[in-house]
Design a protein that fits this description.
mainly alpha, elongated
């Protein structure tokens, strides 16, 4: 397969959009086993909680780039499904604190494992040199977009936005 050198910004944008389409498809398929319990935006909240631990509602809203009322509705639904615990902050009674339940953690682990497996199958089709190039390119892309590196816990695993 001949290597192509992107000659302009448009070619790079097209390649990233194509990759994004692939990654969003993987994200949606990975939720297949739990889609009756959580939506993709709700899963994002679970992943943030998995990475941050107990978190204030206002912080979740900020990280998810949604308003506080939207975050509150998402938290209400996840709490009703026994996937998170929502409590009043004992240090500031006007704030809510959220954390995952054991079942919430299980869902994050299960979906993340499915996503890792599918991405692993795709990446295994690349040569070692292509894998190194992909790591370099994705690292640069993530840094340019302000996305922190995967901590090994639970990556958000989908494009930010």
């Amino acid at each position: 397969m001949p290597q192509r050198q992107p000659s302009d910004l448009s070619a790079v944008i097209s390649a990233v959009l194509t990759g994004t389409r692939l990654l969003v498809g993987i994200a949606v398929r990975s939720l297949g086993a739990v889609e009756d319990r959580v939506t993709l935006p709700q899963f994002r909240m679970l992943v943030v909680l998995a990475g941050h631990g107990e978190t204030k509602l206002v912080t979740l809203a900020d990280v998810l780039n949604v308003n506080s009322s939207t975050a509150m509705r998402m938290a209400d639904r996840l709490a009703a499904a026994d996937l998170i615990v929502r409590e009043v902050n004992p240090h500031n009674r006007r704030e809510s604190l959220m954390r995952l339940t054991g079942e919430g953690r299980r869902i994050v682990d299960e979906v993340t494992a499915r996503r890792r497996q599918e991405i692993g199958v795709i990446v295994s089709r690349l040569s070692p040199e292509q894998r190194r190039m992909l790591v370099d390119a994705m690292t640069a892309f993530n840094e340019a977009g302000g996305e922190p590196p995967e901590s090994g816990l639970h990556p958000l695993g989908w494009p930010a936005g």
